[in-house]
Amino acid sequence: MTTHREPLDSVNETIGETPLVRVHAAPESVPVYAKLESFNPGASVKDRIGQYMLEEMLDRGDLDPGGTVIEPTAGNTGIGIALAATQLDVEAVFVVPERFSLEKQQLMRSLGAEIVNTPTDEGMGGAIDRADELAAEHENAVVPQQFANPLNAEAHYATTAPEIHDALDGRVGAVVAGCGTAGTLMGIARYAREQHPETFVAAVEPQGSRYAEVMGTEVEEGEYKTEGIGTHDPSTNELFDPELVDQVIRVGDRTAQDELKRLASEEGHLVAASAGMASVAARDVAERIRDGEIDAPHDTVVTVFPDSSERYLSKGIYDEFESWEG
Ligand code: PMP
Predict the structure, then answer these.
(1) Which ipTM was obtained for this model?
(2) Global pTM?
């Protein structure tokens, strides 16, 4: 385990090398391990891509020193980019649909970023369009566009995936992760399939989301409360490669909330709804490997817990939330 014994020059040096911890409610014979991404300094999986995308764009000359990054984001990516920007000569502006948590928006502002809100009913698509408009008005501005930027998945291919591989000595039988941009899943899955082409890969989305359509399954579209994963318009999720996915698993908000509460009270994990969904799906895959329904190269399942429940306390994440369905 990384202990950061040496004094460090900046908090950004603590990004990555997060713990991989067993989820105990899974079958004994097919352990499930979760990568705890709230251990990053901005407390989510998105610190990795914030740092990776900005550094690569500066290196490649796609972003000039003194320039501005304008990004449509549900929040965690904004925090990750804003954190990286504090160490680089870059300004950050974020376009955030109103429905997303106020905690995230406060954190982005406190890291020095500017926030532009867009109407909830325009979804992420509205935020993406507004970011493009703002970039056209700004001089020396770029939109990393995490939904279409290969650097997003590459960040996970370069960091998250080898960390998982090393922690398990290569014994990765299945990868199960929630898909927002799908960068996390694509980066880890591509690496794992290169190690072992038969690695089982499952994408997780909320009921009501439309990723399953890309795999040829007709689904009913609807609203969901879980933040950070799912899509209402799969044509904007350009990183999602169905060739790298065996199955899309859909989980309801209520089931995710029951699981995130269970993860806290039984296992000590303070994680949010996207982690609850990932955990339910990962346990399901582990049970199917145990029962011989899935043929995986190793008897282990890896998932990702992307962030912490503290970020959603004002939204009543631990309350009896009648409107949470599924
Ligand atoms: N969970 C949360 C809370 C997130 O903010 C995100 C990022 N949108 C994800 C899961 C999914 O990560 P990705 O965008 O890499 O698919």
Answers:
(1) 0.99
(2) 0.95
pLDDT in tens, 33-57: 999 999 999 999 999 999 999 999 9
**Mean pLDDT calculated for residue range 98-103:** 80
The residues carrying an active-site annotation are 46, 274
CATH topology of domain 46-142: Rossmann fold (3.40.50)
Give the neighbor-by-neighbor strand order of the sheet with 200-206.
20-23, 32-36, 301-305, 174-178, 200-206, 247-251
Please tell me the distance between residue 178's alpha carbon and the centre of ligand 1 in angstroms: 7
Domain with CATH 3.40.50.1100 in the chain: 11-39+150-323, 46-142
- Average pLDDT, stretch 290-312? 97
User: Using a 6 Å CB cutoff, which residues line ligand 1?
Assistant: 45-46, 74, 76, 178-184, 227-229, 272, 274, 306-307
Give 272 Cα–ligand 1 centroid separation in angstroms.
11
Q: How far is the CA of 229 from the centre of ligand 1 (A)?
A: 5
Quote the CA–CA distance of 303 and 82 in Å, as a whole number: 26
Q: Which CATH architecture has domain 11-39+150-323?
A: 3-Layer(aba) Sandwich (3.40)
Atom 7 in ligand 1: residue holding the nearest Cα: 228
Backbone angles phi, psi at 163, to 5 degrees: -60, -45
Protein residue whose Cα sits closest to atom 11 of ligand 1: 180
Dist. CA 36–CA 19, nearest whole Å: 6
